[in-house]
Design a protein that fits this description.
Immunoglobulin-like; Aminopeptidase; 2 domains; seven-stranded mixed sheet; 17 strands; globular; metallocarboxypeptidase activity; Cytosolic_carboxypeptidase; Pepdidase_M14_N
């Protein structure tokens, strides 16, 4: 039986170079109008009973090649459970084997969260009496930028993610957050929503998600470098969200992401903004300390270097919102690998753990909201 590969579906990305016996050479396709690439998601048919070696031959030229060492491909035969499989990175080539005992298998950079899954999440959430839905605007491809609002409290909280569409753990996190916020019987959520109004944008980049991009929208624009001067032509996704933030103000901002290289969950802050104060910064640091004490799936030792005073990039949302509103602003980074302080040998960092981290972060916010 002939091996066939296909990525012509929602969020798919791969290109077949050649099949030589039981060795398949592949390339990841660039984001449109961009040099970025790293996300892959494809299916294989016709390999039942064979051990096939798959080689992503352009891995060394990807956006973050330093993320490949120690990384493991996710594989699934039902598109529900995504397990890590042995993977090696040698001389710029990412290689893995699979012995087929089913008619179909799917491989991905991380457990996918497609636009069809997003639409289902939006539909479920909109049915909750706790949620108010708004369509803030549309993307360059005409897809909706969905926003949900919860609570009536004074402090305005904005939670948004998937500016980089290949970071699919982001929307798994969002699913967990929305499930918790729509749980009308949860006492912690109820207490939080008495003091806050929480706005959630679960997917900032629907076009990149559907197209199978790593980092950019339909125009090849990195949305997390557009927050100082977003435009309708380049970044309407950012423009509509920032305009909505201007209407409400922002006390707390959470931008949810994934990181290729660091095998841990961590936060990045707003050090280096012109209006930095130690008092505001201490609220951000205290949130991280409390989150680390609350869950073994978070830590504060590993992370990005801090910006020096006056050097923060204000085109990035976390810096822009801290400067613009005096917000306690943070970027969550989750791993494509695993959270090494609390590892899982079978699944690594996973959809379910992303969802649980969202719960822990909302619980931690409830614990210290009076201090913000």
């Amino acid at each position: 039986m002939t091996i066939t590969l296909n990525a012509a579906f929602d969020g798919g990305n791969i290109r077949l170079n050649q099949i030589d016996g039981d060795v398949v050479d592949l390339e990841i396709v660039h984001d449109r109008e961009s040099d970025f690439y790293q996300w892959f998601y494809f299916r294989v048919a016709g390999a039942t009973g064979r051990t096939v070696t798959y080689r992503i031959v352009n891995a060394g030229g990807s956006a973050y090649p330093f993320g490949w060492p120690g990384y493991k491909v996710r594989a699934s035969t039902d598109r529900i459970a995504w397990r890590m499989i042995p993977t090696r990175y040698v001389d710029g080539v990412l290689e893995f084997e699979w012995t087929g005992n089913t008619d179909l298998v799917w491989f991905a950079y991380f457990a996918p969260y497609t636009m069809e899954m997003h639409e289902a999440l939006v539909a479920r959430t909109a049915l909750s009496p706790a949620a108010k839905h708004r369509e803030l605007s549309v993307s360059l491809d005409g897809q909706a930028i969905d926003c949900f609002t919860f609570g009536t409290g004074e402090k305005q909280v904005w939670i948004y993610g998937r500016q980089h569409p290949g970071e699919s753990m982001t929307e798994w996190w969002m699913e967990g957050a929305l499930e918790r916020l729509t749980d009308t019987g949860d006492a912690i959520t109820a207490a939080l929503l008495e003091k806050t109004t929480i706005h959630v944008v679960p997917n900032m980049n629907p076009d990149g998600t559907r197209r199978g991009h790593l980092r950019t929208n339909a125009a090849g624009v990195n949305l997390n470098r557009e927050w100082d001067t977003p435009t309708p032509e380049r970044s309407p996704e950012v423009l509509c969200v920032r305009n909505a933030m201007d209407e409400t103000g922002v006390a707390v901002a959470m931008d949810v992401h994934g990181d290729e290289a660091i095998p841990a969950n961590f936060l990045a802050g707003f050090e280096g903004i012109p209006s930095w104060t130690d008092a505001l910064g201490e609220k951000y640091y205290e949130y991280g300390r409390r989150l680390a004490a609350h869950t073994p799936d978070f830590q504060t030792e590993k992370g990005y270097p801090k910006s020096a005073p006056g050097t923060a990039n204000l085109s990035m949302s976390t810096n822009q919102l801290a400067e613009r509103f005096g917000a306690v602003s943070m970027t969550l980074e989750m791993p494509f690998k695993d959270h090494d302080p609390n590892p899982d040998a079978e699944f690594g960092w996973s959809p379910e753990r992303s969802k649980r981290l969202a719960h822990a972060m909302l619980e931690t916010l409830a614990d210290m909201i009076d201090e913000i």
